[in-house]
Amino acid sequence: MRTVDSHQHFWRVDRGDYGWLTPQVGPIYRDCLPEHLAPQLARAGVGTTVLVQAAPTVAETRFLLELAHQNPFIAGVVGWVDFESADAVETIAKLAEDPQLLGLRPMIQDIPDPDWMLDTGLAPAFEAMLDHGLVFDALVLPRHLAPLLELTARYPDLAMVLDHGAKPPLASGDLDAWKQGVTALARDTPMVCKLSGLVTEANSFAPEKLSPAVDHLLESFGPKRMMWGSDWPVCELACSYDEWRGTTDSLLAKLTFTEREHILSGTARATYGI
Fold first, then answer.
1. Of 23, 164, 251, 268, whose CB is crowded by the most CB atoms within 10 A?
2. What pLDDT shows up at residue 254?
3. What string of DSSP letters covers 172-226?
């Protein structure tokens, strides 16, 4: 089984549009490009990746699409568009001319208003995504789960992916509200969920630290609606690519081969049309 990494990033620091990428983030404040990731993919048995935006600019999305065309292991890009812009529909249409644009991801976690996604002024952008067959990646925190549930009801035909399991507060261990929101979302919507980003929420890659969240996600979504992602290089704030891949094997050891295949390959392929 060749694994699909459904969530990884590339950046070049001198591009200058990563507002969050400063020397304070330590080991990941460096250029992170295909030549740096490729050896790690080979060691981990990963044959294909989905490249996800890390800057709120269309220029970065175009940069990522260029990398996708230059590197065959990149299946496609989840990019960014300003949903509030007057020309959002035209921008989405133009970007979607490139078949390697798979989806879009507003950086909702950084927007102060938790109900931002429900603003009716964003409807043209969401409808344009539907028109062009794009996937909506939801980069949200637990406080966004109720609005996200309402959003799915508005756009039932829009394929949606929950990034990083909605970032459960593993460091504090207070998972009750997160669990309730995840349960409702999984029960009442067809949304799929990425098994990614958890090591940085826990500041640990120890399976016992992550299993409370992973077990709840598996129980809520089931393997057919989950996909594995590395969140590289952000994961390096807590562990290496190899360490997270090894931890994944431990966390999924109780599943059948077919169930693991869904999480490690099949769900991503089906969701993004890989």
1. 268
2. 95
3. TT--HHHHHHHHHHHHHS--EEEE-SHHHHHT---HHHHHHHHHHHHHHH-GGGE
Looking only at the bridges linking them, the beta strands covering 46-52 and 3-8 are parallel
- E strands within 119-181? 135-138, 160-162
How many angstroms separate the CA atoms of 226 and 97, rounded?
Answer: 28
Q: Which residues pair with 232 in a beta bridge?
A: 8
**Consecutive H or E run containing 60:** helix 58-70
Ranges assigned E (strand) in 90-175: 101-104, 135-138, 160-162
pLDDT score of 247: 97
Closest Cα to residue 272, out of 9, 54, 58, 49?
Answer: 49
Interval 182-208: pLDDT, tens = 999 999 999 999 999 999 999 999 999
CA-based radius of gyration for the chain: 17
CA distances 96 to 61, 118, 261, Å, are 11, 23, 29
Nearest to 164 by CA among 115, 117, 116, 210: 210
- Mean pLDDT over each residue of the chain, to the nearest integer: 97
For residue range 22-39, list pLDDT tens digits in order: 999 999 999 999 999 999
pLDDT at residue 2, as a whole number: 85
Domains of the chain (ranges, CATH numbers): 3-272 (3.20.20.140)
Assess contact for 160 and 135: CB atoms under 8 A: yes
| Res 1: pLDDT | 67
**Nearest one of 166, 157, 164, 153 to 135, comparing CA atoms:** 157
Of residues 181, 85, 77, 188, the one with CA closest to residue 135? 77
